[in-house]
Design goal:
Elements: E1 12-18, E2 21-30, E3 35-40, E4 57-63, E5 71-76, H1 81-117, H2 120-130, H3 138-151, H4 154-167, H5 172-185
């Protein structure tokens, strides 16, 4: 079943109310995978086309995934050439993000496989390539730290364990490995 937004013609301005605020959008594109809209800053003023100049754009193009009870159409304007450029730019950025995420997941999977096989130099190399893509995926730092420990690179192991423990201070495996690295570094 299609949502109410998917049934609107492209270019339609619409809003919905949540709590005491009004949320205004212009529908830019509808595809099977996503809905793109120009988003305006929420306001306490009821949106209308004759008061349109009062509303400031929050995002020239973004995915519309808002939850609402009921929407109200207030008008329609053709999509401008500038808005078309924003749509193209949004698509490029999203495609690049998807590609980066896929690349990261491939690197992480290969790094974990190398780690499990005991190929610690290769694991370190692959974890190091993956790390800039997701600095909050702390499993990378745990496994790379353990790989460094196996390779006798205690200072590098300690750096990774220290970073890991900032995010998960209760991990007993990492604490034990860190103590081992400290004792062997001396």
């Amino acid at each position: 079943m299609k949502s109410a937004v998917e049934l609107l013609p492209v270019g339609t301005y619409f809003y919905f109310r949540k709590d005491s605020l009004y949320y205004l959008f212009q529908l830019l594109e509808v595809s099977p995978n996503q809905i793109l809209a120009q988003t305006f800053w929420s306001t306490t003023n009821v949106p209308s086309m004759d008061k349109f100049y009062q509303f400031d754009v929050k995002s020239a193009c973004s995915e519309f995934d808002e939850q609402f009870d009921e929407l109200v159409e207030i008008g329609k304007e053709e999509i401008t050439a500038e808005q078309q450029k924003e749509i193209i730019q949004f698509r490029k950025i999203k495609a690049s993000k998807v590609a980066r995420e896929a690349g990261f997941l491939t690197l992480k999977r290969e790094a974990l496989e190398a780690f499990e096989k005991g190929e610690y130099r290769e694991a370190v190399r692959l974890f190091s390539l993956a790390a800039p893509y997701s600095k909050y995926d702390i499993e990378l730092y745990e496994k790379r730290g353990l790989s460094y420990l196996k390779l006798g690179q205690y200072a590098d192991a300690l750096a990774d364990f220290d970073y890991y423990l900032i995010h998960d201070p209760e991990n007993e495996i990492v604490r034990i490995a860190m103590n081992e690295a400290i004792s062997k570094k001396k």
